[in-house]
Amino acid sequence: MYGFLIAVGVLLLLSLIWMVYRIQTLVSVVKGSDKKIASSSNKVNALLFVVFLFGAGGLMFWYSIKEFDNYNLPLGSEHGAVTDQLFWITMAVTGVVFIITHILLFIFPYKYQYSEKRKATFYPDNNKLEVIWTVVPAVVLAILVIGGWKAWSDITAPAPENAHVVEIMGYQFAWEVRYPGLDNVLGDHDYRLVNEVNNPSGVDFTDRNALDDFTSPVVVIPKGEPVLFKIRARDVLHSVFAPHMRLKMDAVPGMPTRFWFTPTKTTAEMRQELGDEEFVYEIACTEICGRGHFSMRREIRVVEPAEYQEWLKEQKPYIVNNPALVENLPSDLKELADITIGEYK
């Protein structure tokens, strides 16, 4: 470790000495005490711009092609097609501009390197050119933004009435998943009721709708039917990211968010398409939320609607697995809770 620090220190010292030398040279040029303005390094630096252009440009294209399948994941939702279309249109527009501007950026230092035989042209302004390079980008960006806004409005609009509701709650460092039971209505929650052992979501069982709520280690959702993720956080900022569904939404403490989508391929169908029997859809956290950020992963399992209904009927509510949660309820709710518990035994 000390050897590394010493090496870094030596390099910094050499760099400093070189910079001092260059500054002295430039000062001499300004004062007119150094008649030789352009040295051999002028041509070398100009040539290096061209070398970097082709070297870095080639590396960019090679890496983009090589890793294409890793950043262009197979699509598993309806709205994802719109998201992908917006992405590739934006990439095409900005990519063309990026390539053209960087070719000019690195070719110009070579083509117009300093020469005593050439005198620079004084070109203070051009109003027509300034209008063009202001209006054209503004129009193009407005079109891109409007397209994105329309897609975002559809995604964040109220979900269809028949959407299957799933609550995704982030906390350090895991996701807690809550389903509303057969009534498809989630019960209330209260952060003051959070208990790490038996009520991590802080479910308020004085709400009748909460009596059939249940949790699951896997997010199970049906293919071809709308699904509404109700998203919240218990402690710090998290972000729900399901890449194959083209789904990303922040989980913010005290500010619930939502995202609805329709899966188009079951897990089994995606495994067959990819030839990978170990493939799983997943939720990951894309906000660095602490030391255990890496562990925030939850599997999504997409199944056929009939299979989903069978799975739903097999799930047991919180209060069945832990009757102590409703021991102190008012008598009328306690009676209803006991009936619910009896139905699942």
Automatic annotation (TrEMBL):
It is found in: Cell membrane; Membrane. This is Cytochrome c oxidase subunit 2. The chain crosses the membrane at residues 6-23, 44-65, 85-110, 131-152. Residues 59-159 form the Cytochrome oxidase subunit II transmembrane region profile domain. Belongs to the cytochrome c oxidase subunit 2 family. Subunits I and II form the functional core of the enzyme complex. Electrons originating in cytochrome c are transferred via heme a and Cu(A) to the binuclear center formed by heme a3 and Cu(B). It catalyses: 4 Fe(II)-[cytochrome c] + O2 + 8 H(+)(in) = 4 Fe(III)-[cytochrome c] + 2 H2O + 4 H(+)(out). InterPro entries: CcO_II, CcO_II-like_C, Cupredoxin, Cyt_c_oxidase_su2_TM_dom, Cyt_c_oxidase_su2_TM_sf. It is a multi-pass membrane protein. Keywords: Copper, Electron transport, Membrane, Metal-binding, Respiratory chain, Translocase, Transmembrane, Transmembrane helix, Transport. Its EC number is 7.1.1.9. One of its GO terms (biological process) is ATP synthesis coupled electron transport. Its cofactor is Cu cation. It comes from Belliella buryatensis. One of its GO terms (molecular function) is copper ion binding. Binds a copper A center.
